[in-house]
Amino acid sequence: MADSDSGLVHIGASCALPTCNMNDFLPIRCKCDQLFCRDHIQPDLHTCPLLAQDAQRGASEPSESTLEKNAAAKSLLSKHFGPSSAATTSGPSRPAASTNPKKLAQQRQLAVMKMRHKAKPADPKDTAVSVPVGERLHLKVRKAEEDPAAERILWFKKEGR
């Protein structure tokens, strides 16, 4: 599977959007059966022909196949999880807080891992590669008058020990 001229292996596929044509190692197949990079997989970004069909049909009226799929999914949910699960469509619910100390420690550790993953360097000169995780100080930062949801997670390089 190697190219005889360059010795390169052909892995992945090119984005089907003519203006992009990026070689993506994990391309995503759209419902229109074309492969796109992660930046152009949204139907409105690659002028998906299925999007035009939906617009002509009227997005407010779901197709019969969609209604059948929804009904089948609800019956499957109620069969396996009881009738209340199929009726609940408000999104994921949070599990009740655990009182088990071992479970609480795991949840705190998971929260720290998520925080470290979301953190951005406070100093633009620092990069994620240049400073090992063990040499970083992670902080949640927000202005006093801002909404708590507007919180930013930053990391600083630890200096001297």
Automatic annotation (TrEMBL):
Superkingdom, natural source: Eukaryota
Molecular function terms, GO-annotated: zinc ion binding
Amino acid composition bias (Polar residues), ranges on this chain: 85-109
Segments forming domain AN1-type: 15-53
Stretch list, region Disordered: 57-109
Keyword Disulfide bond carried by entry: no
Entry keyword set: Metal-binding, Zinc, Zinc-finger
Alphabetical list of SMART domains matching this protein: ZnF_AN1
Gene3D superfamilies given in the database record: AN1-like Zinc finger
Protein's recorded name: AN1-type domain-containing protein
